[in-house]
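Example (one chain per record):
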Amino acid sequence: MSQYYIIDFDSTFTQVEALDELARISLKDHPDRELIYKKIEDLTNASMEGRLSFTDSLEQRVKLLEATREHLKQLIRHLRKKVSTSFSRNSDFFKNHQDEVLIVSGGFKEFIIPVVTEYHIKKENIYANTFIFDEADKIVGYDRTNPLSQEGGKVKLLKELNLPGDIFGIGDGYSDFQLKESGMIKKFFAYTENIERKSVTEKADHITPSFDEFLYINRLPRAISYPKNRIKCLIAGKVDEEAIIQMQKEGYNVRQRDSIEEKYLEEAGVLLCAEDIQPTPEQLAGAPRLKVIGCFGKVASRKLADTACENGVIIFDDPKYNPRNFDFIPKRVISFMNEGKTHTSCNFPDLQPPRVNNAHRLIHIHENVPGILAKINEVFARHNINIVGEFLVTNHQIGYVITDVNKGYDAEVLNELKAIPQTIKFRLLY
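Predicted structure:
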């Protein structure tokens, strides 16, 4: 049976509400612009939370816009920069599922089509409203016969389409939940990467903080192997707010504590810590998920650095009062987590592999003993897997191998790589 993916546009595919953004463009010189902006935002939220009918909300917002075709051109340029991060990095999914992905929105085709078609989404699979213009190219209304301009419009549209298969809905608003409420779709995923509406999330089948999460739980191909919202990032001690914001923007599940508590360290994949709040070597032994430490200052001891290395945990540090460390540390941590780069680490051998597209990247950290690379390659050879690129660096404690391989292989390959004797840590990066 076919599967279809019904995706909302505003605050889902993009980070913003397009009509709100259009108002900021068209009314930027209006003396009462701030009052009108607020009124439009309130109307948007009332509709998205189910407190006002979509029909009434749309009609009132369009009347307030005072927008033209020229304003729409400016909006499109703006929206192209505001595509949600996890949608943007998964453009291959849309390319490979062009017949199954539909954009269904109460927004308008005039600005939706130019944005989403750049992600391989078919124009004929985009369902939205259309503006009406006067002779001076000013927006004076919209097509009221379009079901998407009406209350319950998405339900009406899906009834007309009569798609033959399981349908999954992804969106942030009440109109998206109505698809589930009507029984038209198999599951509704409340999308919270950009905004979380409690009235919607409490009724959803699943809350998905990113498109990576949706793809992961449905076992669909994705750009990264494991959703970042599932990776806990522990912030211990006084860490610059800008660094924390970087980790949040990257999508990590951030927790902040004044000290390092074992119960939180045990769950963490990433640790950012102040110079005076560092883990002990003993604490590292109880942190099996930990992959990387970013220390805002110098590492307390050589023993800590060596113990981390022995456990496959990389450390990046920087002088405490270096004015750049609020930016330097998170960037190094993110670069390691995303691409496996170890440059400037204080305890791992240096490696800066280039990113390889259309390949999977595997990281294997092992004790520095002879023959491990041969065993890794023997697994690939036995499964007829083509190696696109391979990098090995060592220090006196560990060997660090990054292998880029062609896509398409049995999951058993990963289990065999993990089972190689002297393996410390192994992960599929992307």
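Caption: The domain at 2-217 is CATH 3.40.50.1000 (Rossmann fold).
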